[in-house]
Amino acid sequence: MNNTAVKVHEQHRPSPRSHTRKQRKLRIRFTLGEKLLFVSFCVFVMYAAIHIVSNQVKIYQMNKDIQKLEETIQEQQKQNNDLYVEVQQLSTYERILQKAKELGLSLNENNVKVVQE
């Protein structure tokens, strides 16, 4: 048992060669052209992203305006239909005859002429 404890202790002890040896860090160096290419690519990606977002905002605004106009058109059509129904009700023969009597006019059948088209 004593021997195994010594072996484990020896395995964890750092070797003197690893301290004296300096490890080189591998550095990747980019050339000026590669840096410019990378920066120009990043600028292009940002420009494209901003352009896409601005187009989406314009489309959203246009859709919102279209929906408002459609709502206004529907309200106007409803109002027009209501007015048409009111005109139909007010232009009935019975109502016209009643208004004529209220104004003191009378129906004289001898003066009535039938117009045919």
Automatic annotation (TrEMBL):
Write down the membrane topology.
Single-pass type II membrane protein
Give the main localization category.
membrane
Query: Ranges of Basic residues compositional bias?
Result: 14-23
What does the UniProt keyword field contain?
A: Cell cycle, Cell division, Cell membrane, Coiled coil, Membrane, Transmembrane, Transmembrane helix
Biological process (GO), any one: FtsZ-dependent cytokinesis
Coiled-coil zones: 59-86
Q: Which residues cross the membrane?
A: 36-54
> InterPro entries attached here?
Cell_div_FtsL, FtsL/DivIC
Q: Which GO terms describe its cellular component?
A: cell division site; plasma membrane
Q: Which cellular compartments is it found in? A: Cell membrane
Q: Does the keyword Glycoprotein apply?
A: no
Q: Which domain of life is it from?
A: Bacteria
The UniProt annotation puts the region (Disordered) at 1-23
* Role description: Essential cell division protein.
**Entry's family note:** Belongs to the FtsL family.
UniProt name for this protein: Cell division protein FtsL
Upper lineage is:
Bacteria, Bacillati, Bacillota, Bacilli, Bacillales
